[in-house]
Write a structure and sequence with these properties.
two-stranded antiparallel sheet; mainly alpha; 2 domains; Serine Threonine Protein Phosphatase 5, Tetratricopeptide repeat; globular; two-stranded antiparallel ribbon; about 500 residues; about 45% helix; single chain
Length: about 500
C-alpha cells in the first residue's frame, strides 16, 4: 500500500465530504454509470477509505489522547500546557464539548461513510471480474469494522450506518442519529469481518504493489480481538474458544515474531521489530499497519510521530510506573521509552532542557535522512502498527489460560514473548490461573505500550476504575468507562442522539 496511498483521487464518485452529493458529475459529458466504469474507479474508492486512517482526525492527536494519554501508561506531557488535553487526562473534568472528542467521532464516521460508498457502488462496476469486486468490497468491510470497533469501545453504542445515507430521507436521518446497542454494533463488526475474511487474499498472495492492504489474516486478527473483548466482558468460554480457533488458523498463514535487533551507535542493542523503525515495517510480524509516506503531506499520517516524540510536541509522556515495570535486561525498554539526557536510536541526544523526563521512543523520527527516514517535518514515513503477531500470540495465551490450558499459555509467554525480549522464563511459582492471567496482562502492557491497546484492555478486563484510581485519577465507575457523545453531534442531530450517563 506504500504505492496505493499516493494515488490522487481524481474521480468525484469516490468521495465528497458532503453526504448530500456522492456523485458530482457533469451529466452533459459523463453519466454515473460511465464514471463507475472508468479504469480504476473501484480501487480509488477503496483507497479513499484507507486514506481516512492517515488523517489527523482519525489517527493523530485525538486518537493519541483518547487512547494513550487517557490510560495509565502516559501523562499529558509537555508539562501539562494544553488545557484541553489536561481535562481529558484528568478524566474527572472531561466534558462532551471537548473538540478532540468531536474530531475523532467525525473522522471515524467519515471512514464509515467512505466504506459504505465503496460497498454499495463497486458491485455495479461492469468492467471488474466478480473476484475483484469481492476483494474490494472485502477490504471496505474490514475497514468499516475497524472504524466501528474503535467507536464502540470509546463511546459504547453508536449509530449503525450500513449504506449511503440520503439526507432528504426522514428514515435515513433518524438512522444516522439513533444509537443502537453495543451488542448490535459488535454483531455488525463480526459479520463484516467474517465476510471480509472469506474473500480477502492471504498476505503472501498480495503482490508487492498491494503491500499493506487488508488480508485474510488481518480480518481474522481483528476478529480475534473482537472475540477476546467479548470473552472478557461476558466471561464467555464460547468466545475464548473462538480466540483459540482463530489463532490456530492465523498460525498457518506465515506470520512469525521478528527477532531482528538494532545496535545503537556505540550503545545498547534493542528490538528493532517493535521500535517502529522503517526497516521493520511490513515484516513477517506485521498483520496490518497503516502505511505512510512523507513525500507529500496527504500521504503521511498527519503529525502522528511529531505529536509524541522528543523532537516534537512531547504529548504522551510515559509514566515512571510503566518504566519501572520493565525487568532488567528487557530488550523492549529502550525501543519503547527513552529518558531525558539519553540518546535516541540514531545517537541523537535528548537534551536536558527538554520538558519531559521520559519519551515515547516508538514514535521517534530521526532527522538523519541517511537512516532510512525521509522526513518532511512534522510528517514522517513511519507506519502505525494496528495488529502484530505478538498481539495474536498474547490473545492466544490469554484464551488458553481462561480455558484451563495453562501449559499453552506459559509456553507462549516464556518461549516466544519473553524469550524474544531477552528475559528468563517466568518463576515456577506462577502456576494458578489468576497468576498467569496477571502475567499475561503485564506482558500485553509492556509489549504493546503506546500502540493504543491499554485503555481498551483495562476496559474489557473490568479494571478501568481500579487502575485509574491507583494512577491518581478521580475515576467514577459507570460514567468514565465511556467517553461522552460529542455535544456538537447531539446538537446537529436535533438532540435525537442520546448522551452517555453522567455527562
Amino acid at each position: 500500500m506504500k504505492n496505493i496511498i499516493s494515488l490522487i483521487l481524481m474521480l468525484s464518485i469516490v468521495i465528497s465530504c458532503n453526504d448530500n452529493e456522492y456523485l458530482d458529475i457533469d451529466p452533459s459529458s459523463l453519466t454515473p454509470e460511465d464514471a463507475l466504469n472508468i479504469a480504476g474507479a473501484g480501487d480509488k474508492m477503496v483507497v479513499a477509505t484507507y486514506d481516512e486512517l492517515q488523517k489527523y482526525r482519525t489517527m493523530a492527536l485525538p486518537w493519541i489522547v483518547l487512547t494513550t494519554v487517557l490510560a495509565d501508561n502516559c501523562e499529558e506531557g509537555g508539562k501539562r500546557l494544553n488545557t484541553d488535553i489536561n481535562k481529558i487526562n484528568d478524566i474527572e473534568n472531561i466534558s462532551s464539548s471537548e473538540s478532540l472528542l468531536n474530531t475523532l467521532w467525525a473522522g471515524h464516521f467519515f471512514g464509515i461513510s467512505k466504506a459504505n460508498r465503496a460497498i454499495a457502488l463497486i458491485p455495479g462496476i461492469t468492467t471488474l471480474e466478480q473476484e475483484e469486486i469481492d476483494v474490494l468490497v472485502g477490504e471496505s468491510k474490514f475497514l468499516r469494522a475497524l472504524f466501528y470497533f474503535r467507536l464502540v469501545n470509546l463511546y459504547g453504542g453508536v449509530p449503525l450506518i450500513d449504506h449511503i445515507i440520503d439526507p432528504s430521507d426522514t428514515a435515513d436521518k433518524l438512522l444516522a442519529n439513533t444509537r443502537v446497542s453495543k451488542e448490535e454494533i459488535y454483531d455488525f463488526i463480526i459479520e463484516d469481518l467474517t465476510e471480509a475474511a472469506s474473500v480477502l487474499p492471504l498476505k503472501s498472495e498480495r503482490p508487492s504493489s498491494e503491500l499493506g492492504r487488508a488480508t485474510k489474516g488481518a480480518a481474522l486478527g481483528l476478529l480475534t480481538k473482537v472475540n477476546m473483548y467479548l470473552a472478557s466482558e461476558q466471561n464467555s468460554m464460547v468466545h475464548w474458544q473462538n480466540v483459540m480457533d482463530l489463532t490456530d488458523e492465523i498460525a498457518t498463514m506465515g506470520y512469525a515474531l521478528n527477532y531482528d535487533t538494532f545496535q545503537y551507535n556505540n550503545g545498547p542493542t534493542v528490538l528493532s521489530s517493535i521500535s517502529w523503525l522503517e526497516t521493520a515495517e511490513n515484516n513477517e510480524e506485521s498483520v496490518f499497519e497503516v502505511q505512510a509516506r512523507a513525500i507529500t503531506e496527504r500521504d503521511a499520517i498527519k503529525s502522528y510521530a511529531n505529536i509524541q516524540n522528543s523532537r516534537g510536541n512531547y504529548i504522551g509522556e510515559p509514566t515512571q510506573e510503566l518504566y519501572d515495570l520493565f525487568e532488567s535486561g528487557d530488550l523492549r525498554l529502550l525501543s519503547s521509552i527513552t529518558k531525558k539526557g539519553q540518546r535516541n536510536w540514531d545517537a541523537s541526544r535528548i537534551g536536558n532542557a527538554k520538558k519531559n523526563d521520559l519519551y515515547n521512543h516508538k514514535a521517534f523520527v530521526s532527522a538523519n535522512t541517511d537512516l532510512n527516514t525521509y522526513e518532511v517535518h512534522p510528517e514522517s514515513n513511519k507506519n502505525v502498527r494496528i495488529l502484530r503477531y505478538a498481539d495474536i500470540l498474547l490473545m492466544r495465551a490469554e484464551a488458553a489460560n481462561e480455558l484451563g490450558q495453562s501449559g499453552v499459555a506459559l509456553d507462549i509467554l516464556n518461549n516466544y514473548i519473553r524469550d524474544r525480549a531477552g528475559l528468563a522464563p517466568l518463576p515456577t511459582s506462577i502456576i494458578s490461573k489468576e497468576d498467569i492471567r496477571l502475567a499475561i496482562w503485564k506482558e500485553r502492557r509492556i509489549e504493546l505500550a503506546f500502540e493504543h491497546d491499554r485503555w481498551f484492555d483495562i476496559g474489557r478486563q473490568g479494571r478501568k476504575g481500579e487502575v485509574m484510581r491507583a494512577n491518581g485519577k478521580n475515576f467514577t465507575d459507570g460514567i468514565h468507562d465511556l467517553m461522552p457523545i460529542p455535544l456538537p453531534q447531539i446538537q446537529l442531530s436535533g438532540f435525537v442522539l442520546e448522551q452517555n450517563p453522567g455527562y
